[in-house]
Design brief:
The protein has six helices and 14 strands. With 288 residues, it is α+β, with helices and mostly antiparallel strands. The protein has three domains: 53 residues, Roll (Membrane-bound Lytic Murein Transglycosylase D, Chain A), CATH 3.10.350; 77 residues, Membrane-bound Lytic Murein Transglycosylase D, Chain A; 103 residues, Glucose Permease (Domain IIA) (Distorted Sandwich), CATH 2.70.70.10. A hairpin with a 7-residue loop joins strand 8 and strand 9. The relative contact order is 0.12.
């Protein structure tokens, strides 16, 4: 009887759980680049803003990365005026004022760093220092060297422009178009992890770019997307076309809305996303 009473008492006194703390959540802090990945596809995978990811890892356009390279995923806070870039290659249309605004600098500061005097004339291909910790050349001889470097840069830039296609010029003068004809069978619902829409079409149906832009990813390296294409339309807008059968474009290629970029497989269903500043937005509100 004593034994039974002891056992019964134990069963009615459950062990304390006050010391069972919730296990810490796992946050991925870095990513090692795999073959075929681009900075855009990595940013897409982790729902990050590509410009902030580039800034955090001291990358400058065109954001070249290599297999095996380790990238930090702990981003610089949005809105920070700090920049890891120390040099800027002047593009056509750039002014000292526009460059100063881009990097959060006062025009006078930028002019002083680069030993420029009014009216602050700069030329395409010229290298401008945008970090006061790394001042430009000082003294007459250094200025001559700088001018020589600028001349070489201009010559090199001219040579490159003749041997390559011109880089895409992003414009606001376009309207989004449906990438494929069909019926929406799954709507945008971020609360249910539906960051885009599914469009039911037919086997082999051609897919068009929803807007003009530049292909920044084409491959099958993102889990859950199948054969995927990501197109950059502006500094803030990207679109993605997933579950393709054949990819008909490659990274770096400029596309127009009339261009066929892929074809669908047997299922005939395409997954489509639009992201603004790294955040998914409802494609329906953009498409016409």
């Amino acid at each position: 009887m004593l034994l039974l009473s002891f056992i019964s008492g134990c069963s009615n006194s459950p062990a304390s759980v006050s010391d069972r703390g919730q296990p810490p959540s796992i946050k991925i802090k870095s990513h090692r680049v795999d073959v075929g990945e681009t900075l855009y596809s990595i940013a897409w995978r982790y729902d990050l803003n590509v410009r902030e990811l580039a800034n955090t890892n001291s990358l400058k356009p065109p954001y070249t990365i290599n297999p095996g390279q380790k990238l930090s995923l702990i981003l610089t806070k949005k809105g920070s005026t700090l920049t890891s870039v120390t040099r800027h290659a002047v593009n056509v249309g750039d002014t000292l004022f526009s460059i100063a605004s881009k990097y959060g600098l006062a025009v006078g500061t930028l002019a002083r760093i680069n030993h420029l005097t009014p009216p602050y004339i700069i030329k395409p291909g010229q290298i401008i220092t945008v970090d006061s910790r790394f001042p430009g050349p000082i003294g007459p001889s250094a200025t001559q060297d700088s001018q020589s470097t600028v001349a070489k840069s201009n010559s090199s830039a001219t040579s490159r422009s003749q041997s390559k296609n011109k880089p895409p010029v992003y414009s606001d003068n376009w309207q989004w178009k449906w990438p494929v004809d069909g019926q929406v069978v799954e709507t945008f619902n971020p609360g249910k992890l539906q960051k885009g829409i599914k469009i039911k079409s037919s086997n082999g149906r051609q897919v068009h770019a929803a807007a003009p832009g530049n292909v920044v990813y084409a491959g099958s390296g993102l889990r859950g997307y199948g054969r995927l294409i990501i197109i950059k339309h502006s500094d803030t807008l990207l679109s993605a076309y997933a579950n393709n059968d054949k990819l008909l474009v490659s990274v770096g290629q400029s596309v127009q809305q009339t261009d066929v970029i892929s074809s669908l497989g047997v299922d005939g269903t395409m997954y489509f996303e639009i992201r603004k500043d790294g955040d998914p937005v409802n494609p329906i509100s953009y498409l016409n």
